[in-house]
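Dear Dr. H.,

I hope your travels went smoothly. While you were away I took the liberty of generating a structure for the chain from your last submission, since the lab meeting agenda had it listed for discussion. I wanted you to have the full record in hand beforehand rather than looking at slides cold. The sequence, exactly as received, is reproduced here:
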Amino acid sequence: MRSGNAMRLIGQYLLPTWLILIGSAFFGYPALVVHLNPPPSESSLIGFRGKILSSRDTQPNIVLTLKNGASRSFQFPTPLYSVMRNQRRFNGLSMEQQTALTGCDAVIYSAPVKFVWPHIYRVWKIDCGSRSIPYSQVADYFVSQTEKEGRNQWFGAVVIAFVTIATTVQAYYRKSTKSVGHKALVHSERIEPH
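The corresponding predicted structure, in token form, is as follows:
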């Protein structure tokens, strides 16, 4: 009898539990990663010197050939709220800036993103003579985009929370209705002694 009650209880609360877990993974993990990866200070950036092979608005945004001949890919910072999207665009540069970077002997200043796999190095500044990209331009654009996407993310979290609460209340209501119906049935079948 106990195992039957346990299975009923699991069945009633399985959907709300899954909704909580999925909502936490979909909204919680990106929010945590965003919180743990604010724009780094300009003085903490790591410099990589080489020639820029390509520059584009989709990731990887920059491909750099290092002095030793190895290639390394970098990306400009985009909001990390959208875990499911792999092709993020960085629109913080003008088209002229974007195309002017290709072929440039540059120092790319970047920082690794913590708690993400595979390891990603974000470009925060590029020194390339007259074609340089300042830290403030990249950081300001990133902050504005993160705030914009963060508002959208909270709306989704509220919807998931509402659906979870509604499903839990519905499961509880079903349980209490069955319990009241069972008590009424037992009471109606009781035979009074004469």
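Two observations you may find useful: Helices lie at 2-36, 95-100, 135-189. The radius of gyration is 27 Å.

With kind regards,
E. W.
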